[in-house]
């Protein structure tokens, strides 16, 4: 009972102060997030006269829930369609920004002779801009619907995905203690695989489950179901060794495909607001003024680096991908701050015990300063562009204008564009199917011990057990392998028709074409099987058994071919329907 | 980090199971609450194979938040206006039910030779019916808009208020260890005083603060402000020694007067649903099947007592207050179960360490059985009434019908009704003003030490300090005292006119009337001042100082009379406006 009193006192202090400070901040048109951090500094243990918080452990757990709900909401707003619309610019600008900022951050850390891990985490902290702060700033300036704002949102989505990967990578590096590129590639590969498979399986299952629950017309049941899915998936992700932030984002992106998205967003928003307020306030707790005073130099240098580095990298990235100078500059100036992701990454470093204590307050200080600058930078973008235009030598600006014009002129059109689209669709299809197959085999290897235990009453020999598991994985994969084979065949037919012109092989043209079109997919399938063998090495049966299983599988595939095709088509249609259904509803909801 | 993982695992297990079980329960048309409890039993440590919960402390804190949000939502739905509409019946039925069930529960406890405290808490647990279960049941049966349903809601509101008092009383009894009636009366009086003062002050301040924040049009800020007010007030209530449930209910009732009520209800609902789910699931944790098996006898007897006792007491109560037989029986049968309040009271007993461990699972078991019976009882009310009508001797049913007719015939009407309304309004006004005055003096006595410390640099003598504090309290109270005096004077004028008929005193009539009308309020004011002197005994100055202060106050009151009246009128208008504003919006919202 007394413990609960402590806790309610903590919540009362946090919420009251957060409320008062945010009202003041809003009154002076500063972002709410800053208000929370200031409230945290006031409450925190570093500012006199005394700490107002009694039950720090429970509060820190609620702050963790804040990260879950922040990332979950971000996932709900995520959409592959939105991403496709701003496509190339977003990817180029985000990649330029992240690579440049990672490098700048790392170099600054090395310059101050910080530890390797500190420098690496500093780089990661500077790499990602703050979605919440930009959205709030653009909203307050009334620029949310402008073209450059759409580009900024695109860059932010790409950044979020890359940040998720970065969190996974940093965890891996922190645990193994070394920057092993092959290891990193493998980690990133596994991560991508996990993301693709959980998206596909999730989008097949979750919206259907939610639709079923929604039929009862009880927002309480819907909320509890959504929370169950959210925390359940987070738990799975944690058990697989990834961060809870990744899990919350992914399940959010999956649930975003449910027809009931708008209802769910409305139900989750208060939870996000309450817990994210606690999260941002606890960030303020950790702000030790003494640390800030003694690290004034680094903070100033990092702030300048963030502002200039982000403006340059994002503007150049946008410009290179074909935007005009003014839009590029506005994109760059909008993205020049760091925010919630930096805190998440800083908290990751602290919880993994690989970074020094000063890194967190430094990140918060830089974030506070750059956040304060954001609205002024956005407003200053146009005057700065004009000034830059006047200062630039005529020849340079002529070359730049020609570049933009040239890029816009080389867009594919007509037949070749349609062909590219077909090829792209086939390759995407093959990649998704292969990801599922790989996941099945990796899952078999991962859970082999559990399977073996289940089989032990009937099958004792380990060799026999591994044959059964491997064979089972192969059986499960068959529909997807058949689909991959068929898609590869149609792709090779297409390629062959283009690359073996009829005048080259003369009267053998048709013959040559058919042979190549048959050989190419079979060769690819052999490659796939070799890859699978490597990935499932730990449960690979003996050579004879493998041969037998393989032949049985091929026979089965040939015999049940049409059934497999039908089943796979059904799954594919279900997936497509879910994705397109959502589309309808969203358009309906906004119109 | 690892701790947060434990916690997320707990949340995942709770939410996933709660989601699945509630879907199943909803499928078979049973209340969601039962589903949560069953999910809790499955998760709980008493059911094999092992406990699925790792961080029981944090989960129990979140369950406590469930109580806060449940009571807060109840407060948001509470309305003095709604209560006035069903008035007499609700009060009579609720009082009959609570007194009878308290007695039955206590006697059952004594019969089984349980401890005195156990018996007392058992009585309290059986006294209150379950709002959530009744609302769900009536909703599912489609009877929510019937007349008896409105009566049931009225009874529930009165019960909720009395339950709040009961929680305070039980805490007091548990701490002092004795059932001291004068102590209990004093406690209840202090509680009533606290409730009235916080309602008046709260309704004056809180809706204005919320309206100010709402101007920023940010639902995030509104939510944080509301949560800050909620937890802040809960903290104050806890510090004053009352339960957090009372605090949450009161601040909810205050915030219910804000113009933004509907928005706030929408924002708080997901928080309530999430945390109350955790609360109900944790109830299931404590359900030890062994306890239930060994207490099968008491559970059966208590269940029968709850069903029959509540049907009889509520039906008789409704009937006595003038409802017809059929409606009375429907009210009684709807109210015959126990629910969330019983758990809150059981949890109170456990946390105060005055009740035995078996009481909680017994209460949960009885609640589960009576909840399951509720829909059948509601549906069975009409057939049962008909059967009862056939079985009743003709003369009895004739007498009963005549009683109903007689009661309905004696309703006041015309002039006397209007007069009663005026007198009632004046008395209410006096009571509220006096409550504020009493609160000011009690506050002065309570915080005397803090005030004394503040004054110590200038005034050292304790006698002088107490004179300043007492005088200050008197000064603050003056506007309210002046208002009380004026209201009492108009009341005595009214009464004198009625009770001193012109033919009695002949030509002295006017004179007698004026003297009586002057003396009565002055006598009453002297009584009030004596009461204040008793209440503030600890800070009462010496007799001379008291006399001086009193004379100064009277002079001030006479001189500044009109200013005080104006100020008081302003406050009163502000209060009235808030209450009526809300009325507009609510009607607007529902039409």
UniProtKB/TrEMBL annotation, chains A, B:
Residue ranges occupied by any Cation/H+ exchanger transmembrane domain in the UniProt entry: 13-377
InterPro entries documented for this protein: Cation/H_exchanger_TM, Na+/solute_symporter_sf
Protein's cellular compartments: Membrane
Ranges that cross the membrane: 6-25, 32-53, 59-76, 88-108, 120-139, 151-179, 191-214, 221-238, 274-293, 299-320, 358-378, 426-448, 468-485, 515-539, 545-564
Alphabetized UniProt keyword annotations: Membrane, Transmembrane, Transmembrane helix, Transport
Primary location recorded for the protein, binned into one broad class: membrane
Membrane-topology descriptor: Multi-pass membrane protein
Family the UniProt entry places it in: Belongs to the monovalent cation:proton antiporter 2 (CPA2) transporter (TC 2.A.37) family.
Protein's recorded name: Inner membrane protein YbaL
Organism: Candidatus Pandoraea novymonadis
């Amino acid at each position: 009972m007394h413990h609960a009193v402590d806790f309610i006192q903590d919540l009362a202090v946090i919420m009251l102060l957060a409320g008062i400070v945010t009202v003041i901040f809003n009154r002076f048109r500063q972002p709410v997030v800053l208000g929370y951090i200031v409230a945290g500094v006031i409450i925190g243990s570093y500012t006199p006269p005394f700490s107002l918080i009694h039950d720090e452990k429970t509060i820190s757990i609620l702050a963790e829930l804040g990260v879950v709900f922040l990332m979950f909401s971000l996932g709900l707003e995520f959409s592959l369609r939105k991403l496709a619309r701003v496509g190339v610019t977003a990817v180029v600008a985000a990649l330029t920004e992240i690579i440049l900022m990672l490098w700048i951050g790392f170099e600054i850390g090395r310059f101050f002779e910080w530890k390797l891990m500190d420098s690496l985490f500093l780089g990661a902290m500077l790499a990602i801009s703050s979605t919440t702060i930009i959205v709030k700033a653009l909203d307050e300036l009334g620029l949310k619907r402008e073209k450059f704002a759409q580009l900024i949102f695109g860059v932010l989505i790409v950044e979020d995905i890359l940040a998720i990967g970065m969190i996974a990578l940093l965890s891996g590096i922190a645990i193994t203690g070394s920057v092993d590129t092959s290891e990193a590639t493998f980690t990133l590969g596994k991560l991508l695989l996990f993301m693709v498979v959980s998206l596909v399986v999730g989008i097949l299952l979750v919206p259907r489950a939610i639709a079923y629950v929604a039929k009862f017309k009880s927002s309480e049941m819907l909320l509890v179901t959504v929370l169950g899915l959210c925390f359940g998936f987070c738990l799975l992700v944690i058990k697989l060794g990834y961060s809870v932030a990744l899990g919350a984002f992914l399940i959010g992106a999956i649930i975003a495909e449910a027809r009931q998205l708008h209802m769910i967003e409305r139900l989750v928003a208060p939870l996000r607001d309450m817990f994210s307020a606690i999260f941002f306030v606890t960030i303020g707790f950790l702000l030790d003024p003494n640390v800030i005073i003694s690290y004034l130099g680094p903070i100033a240098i990092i702030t300048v680096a963030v502002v200039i580095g982000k403006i340059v990298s994002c503007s150049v990235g946008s410009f290179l991908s074909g935007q005009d100078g003014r839009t590029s500059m506005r994109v760059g100036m909008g993205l020049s701050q760091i925010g919630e992701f930096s805190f998440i990454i800083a908290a990751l470093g602290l919880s993994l015990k690989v970074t020094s204590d000063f890194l967190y307050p430094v990140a918060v200080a830089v974030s506070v300063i750059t956040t304060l600058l954001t609205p002024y930078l956005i407003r200053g973008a146009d005057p700065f562009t004009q000034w830059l235009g006047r200062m630039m030598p005529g020849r340079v600006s002529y070359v730049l204008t020609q570049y933009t014009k040239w890029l816009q002129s080389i867009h594919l059109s007509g037949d070749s564009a349609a062909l590219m689209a077909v090829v792209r669709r086939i390759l995407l299809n093959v990649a998704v199917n292969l990801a599922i197959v790989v996941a099945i085999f990796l899952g078999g290897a991962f859970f082999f011990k559990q399977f073996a235990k289940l089989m032990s009453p009937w099958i004792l020999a380990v060799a026999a057990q591994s044959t059964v598991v491997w064979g089972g994985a192969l059986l499960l994969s068959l529909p997807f392998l058949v689909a991959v084979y068929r898609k590869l065949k149609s792709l090779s037919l297409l390629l062959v028709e283009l690359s073996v012109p009829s005048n080259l092989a003369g009267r053998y043209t048709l013959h040559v074409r058919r042979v190549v079109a048959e050989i190419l997919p079979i060769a690819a399938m052999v490659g796939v099987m070799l890859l699978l063998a490597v990935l499932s090495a730990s449960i690979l049966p003996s050579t004879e058994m493998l041969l037998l299983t393989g032949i049985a599988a091929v026979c089965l595939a040939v015999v049940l071919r049409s059934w497999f095709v039908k089943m796979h088509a059904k799954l594919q249609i279900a997936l497509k329907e879910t994705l397109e259904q959502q589309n309808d509803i969203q358009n309906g909801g906004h119109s």
